[in-house]
Amino acid sequence: MKIIIPSYNRSETISTHKLLKDNTYTVILHDKEQFKKYALNDSIKPDSFAITGIYNGISGQRQWILNNLIEEGEWFLTMDDNIKSFTSVTGELYEKSILDTENDKSLKEKYEDQINIDRLLEICDEMINISEEKNIHYCGFSTTPNFYFRSRKYRYVGYVISKMALIKKSSKINYDQNIKAMDDYAYTAENLLKFGAVLINNFVHPISKHYQEGGIGTYDERVEKKIADAKYLMLKYPGLFRYKIKSGCHPKAEIQIRQNNTRQINEWRREMFLKGKI
């Protein structure tokens, strides 16, 4: 499976590739100036770079990846560049569909076991098999390290964070080039609209810093773009999102999906069909 790592201004702090052992990966860079800096990092395989020449943000980078590196119907794994480890429920507990995190606090440590890339790729294969059966094209992992909110192993409606995600290329879906900071919300919305579901594995979580310097910037550097993106997404996908109050964040820069299950999503899709949005 192809492993793709978009990166920007983190030539010295990039870490994800160090977890991949002998697996082939591609580090996606904007231009030759970025390449000159990254090439000095001898922990990165010299033949692992791809230069896009794209300057219109992360949505442009992600669309370039689809257009140039991935075949129609092919699955690949995309990861942020600053992942430090992969954690997962392990052993027999991983095989369960739901765990009683509300009442059994001892489960906390069971969610924090570190796994290697080989185990992660086994889990990815499992998720791809489920997705093929259900015509799902976009898969993600837990958005929070907090075990309490991760009782159910699989969800089919929710936000797929692009920190680490499995994508099956489909000509029906492209990355919206109007989006500058919330590409994963936009891609989630488009998948829910076109296919009616995503797949989220709550038993697995990638550990990394959020809003780390480099990339598309710290929270303060992104907030104006997030406000514009949130407004745009609310208008493009009416009824799917609502604003989310989040401590320390701008009230118009955070959104969440309203629906909790595929029945509700299908009702929303019907409304969108009647409005001529599909």
Q: Helix count? A: 6
**Secondary-structure element series:** EEHEHEEEHEEEHEEHEEH
Write down the overall mean pLDDT.
Answer: 95
Largest sheet geometry: 8 strands, mixed
Q: Using only CA atoms, what is the Rg?
A: 18 Å
From the helix content, strand content and strand pairing, which structural class follows? alpha/beta
Enumerate the spans where pLDDT stays under 50 for 5 or more consecutive residues: none
Q: What's the arrangement of strands in the largest beta sheet?
A: 3-2-1-4-9-7-10-8
Span from first to last CA?
Answer: 31 Å
Shape descriptor: globular
Strand content: 15-25%
Percent in helix: 25-40%
Question: Strand tally, please?
Answer: 13
Overview of this structure, please?
This protein has 278 residues and is an alpha/beta fold. The protein is built from six helices and 13 strands.
Question: How are the secondary structure elements laid out?
Answer:
Blueprint: E1 2-6, E2 26-29, H1 32-38, E3 49-51, H2 58-69, E4 75-79, E5 83-88, E6 113-115, H3 117-134, E7 138-141, E8 154-155, E9 164-168, H4 183-195, E10 199-201, E11 204-208, H5 219-236, E12 241-243, E13 255-257, H6 262-274
Parallel strand pairs: 1-2, 1-4, 2-3, 7-10
Antiparallel strand pairs: 4-9, 5-6, 5-11, 7-9, 8-10, 12-13
